Amino acid sequence: MRGMAARLRNSVNYESLLGVFVACTLYSGALQLVLFISLHFPPILGKSFIAIAILLAAPVGARVIYKLELDSGAFTAVWIWAAYVAWSTLAVSWTTSVGVVGPKLALFFAINPTFLLLGLLVGYSESALNSLIFAIKVIALLAGVAALTFAELGTAALTSHLSKDTVIVFASGYQPITMAVGVGGALFFVSMLTSRASPIATTIQILGWAFLGIGTLAGGGRSAAIGAGVAEMAILVLLFVRLSSRGESRQARKLLIWSVITVGFGIVLIYLGFQLQLRTLTRLMSFTDTFTDTTGRTWLFNKALLMASAHPIFGAGFGSFHSTALNIESLGIYPHNIFLEILAETGLIGLILYTSFVGTTIYLTLVRAQRLMLEHAAVWSAFMVTAIVANMVSGTITDRFMIFSLGMGLGLVSRMRTTDNEPVDLHFGDRLET
Known about the structure:
This protein has helices at 2-11, 14-26, 28-39, 43-47, 49-65, 72-90, 98-124, 126-159, 164-171, 174-194, 199-219, 222-245, 249-275, 279-284, 297-310, 321-324, 338-368, 374-393, 400-417, 427-433. With 434 residues, the chain is mainly α. Helix content is 78%, strand content 0%. The chain has 20 helices and no strands. Mean pLDDT is 77; it is low at 1-11, 154-171 and 420-434.
């Protein structure tokens, strides 16, 4: 019996399990809605998904972390991040939102180190990254069905089944649903362009991409939809630059054909979305209008800029936006732009530290991208670009997608440092030749 148990432990691919658990953690909000819509699971069970996934990921991550060897550049980026966290913590001492700062700081400390580490581990382990991609695609397809169901039912019909305490969770559930669907669609897009596969498998990738495109427009999350669309264009640019720099002009020209197809499909999809009154597009119409949207972006941005102009160097204090800018003690109201939030609350010092961390990570990853397989470089672009765009129009400093994407980049950078031979990159050329 002991021998069987030992063989079972040895046969388990812990890195692959880590990728699955991390996917469930990242998109726990989408899974929460999927469970409710499809199986009528109680909201409390769905909300516990993130805790369950983290608990499962912890022992698996502990078995993987001993392999992690940070690149010197990645180590520098982590120190810059630590300085940013330390400065944000210090900024608590002059906050004006006493009722908000405690919960927000706790969430900040729970999210940042956890998802930075998870991103590092997934980026460093090829097995974990591949299983993460597969798991997100599955979650995205389920979330796509939920998004279309959610759009059909409407918020009123959906929330009529809920108690007052949980209505807000589902009424605002469009963001996690759309984020899962949008990123999943971008990953199908990457596989469609870079993976060697049979014609049947290729057709499945194309259909998955098309279906999730519709799901993105039905989900309702405006920033996530914009981020996913920009990410797909960024992937095309990245692949074109890589191919051109390697002198593969024929493949680069074929990529331009894919670009035209992608843009054309997007135009048709948006036209049909307007005809069907899909929720993302109808909400985009009120993106900056405070009268029809209580989170009108220009209004919130201006509030943050006014606050920053009054406290330019040190900021008004961590968590202060709620009381200083709006006279509201609520975690649910924030500038909806992570950079403006950092500037307003922690000043130029905090913004310089944070942008230095982001810029260093992106620079290191793009430099190392010359050695990454095209698929993994494009996958990282799907995560990173979606997160940056979404955080510029809807994000907050406690957002897990941004810090996870940055951690993944540093993990990829460190993996390239420990790779003796440059990976052979055959996928994209094979796809274009078929």
